[in-house]
Design brief:
It is a single chain. It is built from nine helices and six strands; from the N terminus they run E-H-E-H-H-H-E-H-H-E-H-E-H-H-E. 43% of the residues lie in helices and 14% in strands. By secondary structure, the chain is of the alpha/beta class. Helix 1 (22-32) runs parallel beside helix 3 (51-58) and helix 4 crosses helix 6 (112-136). The mean pLDDT is 95. It has one domain: NAD(P)-binding Rossmann-like Domain (Rossmann fold). It has helices at 22-32, 43-48, 51-58, 70-83, 99-102, 112-136, 163-185, 208-218, 226-237; strands spanning 10-14, 36-40, 88-93, 139-149, 188-194, 248-251.
Length: 265
C-alpha cells in the first residue's frame, strides 16, 4: 500500500549496489511513495554492482561520484538539480568500506593507510556531502539527510574493527552539522543505527552470522530487516518526521536497551 508520503519530493540516493543493499530497497520504497531521485555510486560500484538495473526499475538516472572527491560531489549535486529540475528534499548516505575488515586484519594489526581510508570513505565523506550541499544551497527548507550506522560505533564488537571509529564520526557529524543546518535552513540530519543486516558490507564482518543470531535472540522484536529499515528511512524523509534532527536513532528491535534475555539464558 502506498500513502504518497514523498509526493513532490526529490533527492539523491548514494550507495545502492545490489538487491542486498539497504539503499536499493530504499530507492524502490521512495518511488512507491511518489518521490523522485537520482542514484549515485562510484564508477567501480556502478561497474561491479547492479545499479543500472535499479535505474531501469525506478525510471531514473545515475550520476557517478567518488565520495572522497569534492569535485565529484559537486558535479553529482549540480547534475541532480538539473535532472530533477530544482532543489532537492532528501539525501541518503549509505556508504561503508574497510579494507582492514575485508583483509581480516585484527584490531592490533591495522594497516593505518587503510584505517585512514575507512575514516575518509565511511565517515568524513558524510561531512563532505553536507558541506558541499550547503555551499551549493541545493536542499529545500525542511529537507532531510540520513546516514546509516550500527551500535558498534558505541559498544565493542571485536569484528567491527576500524569501522567502529568511522561510524562514531558519522554520529558526531550528525549532531554538529544537524545543529548548524537546523538553525540556518530548518534542514534535519539523522543517523539510523540499524540491526545487523545481511548486506554485502555486513557479511564481510568476522563472525557476522553469530552476531546476527545473538542480536536476534536478545531483541524482543527480533532484528530489523532491510525492508523495515527502508520504511523507516522513507518516514525520515517525509514531513511526518520534520521535528526530528541531530539524533542517533536505534532501529534494532529493542536490542540496545536489553541486558540479558530469557532466550540467551
Amino acid at each position: 500500500m502506498s500513502y504518497n508520503l514523498l509526493k513532490n519530493k526529490k533527492g539523491i540516493i548514494f550507495g545502492a549496489l545490489n538487491e542486498n543493499s539497504i539503499a536499493w530497497q530504499v530507492a524502490q520504497k521512495i518511488k512507491k511513495e511518489g518521490g523522485r531521485f537520482v542514484l549515485s555510486n562510484s564508477e567501480t560500484g556502478i561497474r561491479t554492482g547492479k545499479i543500472k538495473l535499479l535505474s531501469k526499475i525506478c525510471n531514473t538516472e545515475i550520476v557517478s561520484a567518488n565520495i572522497n572527491s569534492i569535485n565529484d560531489i559537486n558535479n553529482l549535486f549540480t547534475q541532480s538539480t538539473l535532472i530533477l529540475n530544482g532543489k532537492i528534499d532528501f539525501i541518503l548516505h549509505s556508504v561503508a568500506l574497510s579494507k582492514n575488515i575485508r583483509k581480516k586484519n585484527n584490531y592490533g594489526n591495522l594497516n593505518y593507510k587503510w584505517f585512514l581510508e575507512t575514516l575518509n570513505v565511511s565517515g568524513l565523506s558524510f561531512h563532505k556531502m553536507i558541506q558541499t550541499a550547503e555551499k551549493l544551497n541545493i536542499i529545500n527548507k525542511w529537507g532531510s539527510i540520513v546516514t546509516l550506522s550500527f551500535i558498534g560505533s558505541q559498544k565493542v564488537y571485536p569484528g567491527y574493527s576500524d569501522m567502529s571509529q568511522a561510524k562514531a564520526i558519522l554520529e558526531s557529524i550528525t549532531r554538529n552539522y544537524g545543529y548548524r543546518f537546523a538553525k540556518k535552513n530548518k534542514i534535519r540530519i539523522n543517523t539510523i543505527l540499524q540491526s545487523p543486516t545481511i548486506t554485502t558490507a555486513g557479511k564481510g564482518i568476522k563472525k557476522f552470522n553469530k552476531i546476527y543470531k545473538y542480536t536476534h535472540k536478545i531483541s524482543p522484536l527480533g532484528n530489523a530487516d532491510i525492508e523495515d529499515c527502508s520504511n523507516f528511512i522513507v518516514f525520515m524523509f517525509s514531513d511526518l518526521s520534520k521535528m526530528i534532527t541531530m539524533q542517533s536513532l536505534m532501529h534494532d528491535g529493542g536490542f540496545s536497551n536489553c541486558g540479558i534475555t530469557e532466550d540467551i539464558l
